[in-house]
Amino acid sequence: MNGLDIITFYHNPQSRAATVRWMLEELGAPFKMEALNFQTGDHKKADYLAVNPMGKVPAIIHKGVVITETAAICCYLADEYLGAGLAPAIGDAQRGTYLRWMFFAPACMEPAVWDKALQRTPGKPGMIGYGDFDSAMDVAAGAVAAGPYMLGERFSAADVVFGSMVLWGMMFKLIPERPEFAAYAARLTARPAHQRAQAADAELSATLGL
């Protein structure tokens, strides 16, 4: 295998990078991890700022190219490792639905959750991408209600991204405790790849003293 084919993964287990860690487990893709300790400011050092000037994780380097932003990374990896079956190919009838929910989580759910949690007043619903919190949560719950996954019986990278948002929101009680979310979360946490990622991140957290 060409060394460029191995993914370099910049990670902190207490960050959005945990979603990419799960994605890598689902793919079984070869990667080497660069763990960044926020407490010692690794993410703000020159070496990492040369990778991501935002000083945030996750980020990956693959085939000499830097990719940042969680959903973008997961979308890229699913397409790059298409044989793993985590993305409908271009031309597949499910491709549009897959992309819709892949990006609904960071574009609508996350800002809606943070605005509510931080008691920010975002202005008129028509001025912001998610409209209002209740509408965003209703749409999200409806999306998982039919199940078992975002594409019906087919698990995909959209579930990794969307599902991570649901799991995180439920953990911190930032999204409503609705039966649709609870059932979906149970299906996701039962996946062996998710369990492996969680165990690996718990071990890494201990190593970093988090």
Structure summary:
The protein has eight helices and four strands; from the N terminus they run E-H-E-H-E-E-H-H-H-H-H-H.
Structure description:
The chain is α+β, with helices and mostly antiparallel strands and 210 residues long. It has two domains: 3-85, 3-Layer(aba) Sandwich (Glutaredoxin); 95-193, Glutathione S-transferase Yfyf (Class Pi), Chain A, domain 2 (Up-down Bundle). Helix content is 50%, strand content 9%. It has eight helices and four strands; from the N terminus they run βαβαββαααααα. Strands 2-1-3-4 form a four-stranded mixed sheet, covered by helices on one side. Strand 1 (7-11), helix 1 and strand 2 (31-35) form a beta-alpha-beta unit. The longest helix has 23 residues, at 95-117. The radius of gyration is 17 Å and the shape is globular. The chain starts with 6 loop residues before the first strand and ends with a helix.
